[in-house]
């Protein structure tokens, strides 16, 4: 590994003459409670890792159990068919129990197979995950370079795991070791994600999810992004993004792209450069993104619409100004202005809210309901979820101090579809009652579906 001129880490692929390359299976663990309203897309993190491993000459297969469903026979067939040397499993908090179940099945079938867990949950709780007998390694943070180095170390049989940044492992005595985190990779050095390894015909958004930047400077108490990214940010160059867009258009006929980044418009100069490049594409491309209401202006929204932007999701969270001041730092007036300015230029808007916050009362939730009504009347679709104290968030780390009672230790319930909180003012039953009334009064889809 070496430092690039822009301050990122680059990775080098070393092809060993006459080497026997490794056989790797990559698995996206499924949620325990799938929603009929969820829109599935290929898991980009695994697709990037697959592309790096393929570029190095290794054999790679991939499975997304969110598409196929998780059944014991399917895992058994995967092991028998692919006979992988290494299995990498991606796990969010709500998918971690299923990820562990998959690991245990594979280990029972072939104890020699090396099991690697990565994704947000292992990155945040590395020691808890590594304590599981079925887990041999974990990847902390970005996985491309770490997974490649681990694969080549296993291939060489040197056992020099202590030298691999971003890796967690058990040494010869069984002691858990967590190496220092790896600096962010230069995103322009990465190959185009190997989406083709996944069953693209089964995704609603099969070609149209693209990651343009990573990280978030805000430290919202309900979000683990700042923990996962260590407060750092990175962005791909507009030219590199266009390279992938042209590939998707030429090879897959893509005509719509959703940028999956948390705050797409964080750097407006960068956004303007991307929009300038979009006008050079061989045919028009429609696109969407997510951002904050205080990160757009009417002028920017007009330019976005002119270059094909058709959808934006704003994170609003609450309709009570006091709560917004404490958890988001935005004003209700900014929400209405951002919604109106977008809808006036033909951009579809969705605004996401969550309940409950630590200081929510019956009155503040009713206030949120009335603000949701205003936002809907301004032209936005309303998205509602339960506040979830994910590991790594301020809400999880300071629950007692905030008067939050976390009602379950079952990670599968940490999916924003189940209420797992009581607050100092509201019981779980009262929260469910208030949310039920809100959903019915506004004609929303049930929050828990």
Summarize the helices and strands and which ones pair or pack.
Elements (H helix, E strand, L loop, with lengths): L1 E2 L5 E2 L12 E6 L15 H12 L3 E6 H4 L3 H11 L3 E5 L5 H14 L4 E5 L1 H5 L1 H5 L6 E3 L4 H13 L10 E4 L5 E3 L30 E2 L2 E2 L10 H4 L5 E2 L2 H15 L3 E4 L8 H11 L7 E6 L6 H9 L2 E9 L3 H7 L4 H13 L3 E8 L6 H16 L2 E7 L7 H4 L1 H4 L2 E2 L14 E2 L5 H15 L7
Low-confidence region ranges: 1-10, 13-18
In round numbers, the mean pLDDT is 90
Number of domains: 2
Reported for the largest beta sheet, the result is: 7 strands, mixed
Determine Rg (CA atoms, Å).
22 Å
Largest sheet strand order: 4-3-5-6-7-8-9
Outline: globular
The CATH class of the largest domain is identified as Alpha Beta
Q: CATH homologous superfamily of the largest domain?
A: Aldolase class I
User: Which percent band covers the strand fraction?
Assistant: 15-25%
Multimerization state: single chain
Q: Which structural class matches the secondary elements? A: alpha/beta
Separation of the first and last Cα atoms:
45 Å
Q: Let me know the number of strands.
A: 19
Provide the helix percentage: 25-40%
Q: What is the second-level CATH architecture of the largest domain?
A: Alpha-Beta Barrel
Count of alpha/pi helices:
17
What is the fold named in CATH at topology level of the largest domain?
A: TIM Barrel
Structure characterization notes:
Helix 1 (44-55) crosses helix 7 (144-156), helix 11 (298-306) packs parallel to helix 13 and helix 14 (362-377) runs parallel beside helix 17. The strands form five sheets. The protein has a seven-stranded mixed beta sheet with strand order 4-3-5-6-7-8-9, sandwiched between helices. It has a six-stranded parallel beta sheet with strand order 10-13-14-15-16-17. The chain has two domains: 2-178, Response regulator (Rossmann fold, 3-Layer(aba) Sandwich); 207-442, Aldolase class I (TIM Barrel, Alpha-Beta Barrel), CATH 3.20.20.70. By secondary structure, it is α/β, with parallel strands linked by helices. It contains 17 helices and 19 strands. Residues 1-10 and 13-18 have low confidence and may be disordered. Strand 3, helix 1 (44-55) and strand 4 (59-64) form a beta-alpha-beta unit. 36% of the residues lie in helices and 18% in strands.
């Amino acid at each position: 590994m070496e430092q690039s001129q822009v301050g990122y880490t680059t990775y080098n692929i070393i092809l060993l003459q006459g080497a026997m390359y490794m056989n790797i299976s990559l698995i996206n663990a499924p949620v325990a409670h799938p929603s009929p309203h969820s829109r599935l897309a290929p898991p980009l993190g695994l697709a990037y890792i697959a592309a790096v491993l393929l570029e190095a000459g290794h054999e790679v297969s991939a499975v997304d159990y969110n598409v196929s469903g998780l059944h014991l026979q399917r895992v058994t067939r995967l092991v028998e068919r692919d006979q992988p040397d290494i299995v990498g499993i991606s796990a969010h908090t709500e998918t971690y129990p299923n990820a562990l179940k998959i690991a245990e099945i594979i280990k029972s079938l072939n104890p020699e197979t090396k099991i690697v867990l990565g994704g947000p949950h292992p990155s945040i709780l590395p020691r808890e995950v590594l304590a599981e007998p079925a887990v041999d390694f974990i990847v902390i943070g970005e996985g491309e370079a770490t997974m490649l180095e681990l694969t080549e170390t296993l291939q060489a049989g040197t056992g020099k795991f202590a030298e691999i940044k971003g890796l967690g492992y058990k040494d010869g005595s069984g002691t858990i070791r967590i190496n220092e985190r790896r600096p962010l990779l230069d995103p322009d050095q990465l190959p185009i994600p190997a989406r083709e390894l996944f069953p693209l015909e089964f995704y609603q958004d099969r070609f149209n999810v693209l990651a343009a930047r990573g990280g978030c400077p805000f430290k919202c108490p309900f979000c683990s992004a700042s923990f996962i990214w260590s407060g750092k940010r990175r962005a791909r160059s507009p030219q590199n993004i266009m390279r992938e867009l042209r590939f998707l258009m030429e090879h897959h006929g893509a005509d719509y792209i959703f940028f999956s980044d948390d705050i797409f418009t964080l750097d407006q100069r960068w956004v303007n450069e991307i929009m300038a490049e979009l006008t050079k594409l061989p045919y028009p491309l429609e696109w969407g993104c997510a951002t904050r209401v205080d990160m757009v202006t009417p002028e920017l929204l007009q330019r976005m619409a002119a270059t094909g932007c058709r959808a934006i999701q704003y994170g609003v969270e609450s309709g009570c100004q006091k709560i917004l001041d404490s958890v988001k730092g935005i004003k209700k007036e900014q929400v209405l202005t951002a919604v109106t300015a977008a809808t006036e230029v033909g951009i579809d808007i969705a605004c996401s809210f969550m309940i409950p916050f630590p200081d929510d009362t019956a009155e503040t939730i009713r206030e949120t309901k009335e603000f949701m009504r205003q936002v809907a009347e301004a032209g936005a679709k309303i998205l509602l979820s339960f506040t979830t104290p994910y590991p790594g968030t301020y809400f999880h780390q300071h629950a007692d101090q905030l008067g939050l009672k976390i009602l379950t230790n079952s990670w599968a319930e940490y999916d924003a579809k189940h209420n797992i909180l009581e607050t100092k003012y509201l019981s779980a039953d009262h929260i469910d009652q208030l949310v039920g009334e809100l959903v019915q009064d506004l004609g929303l889809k049930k929050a828990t579906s």
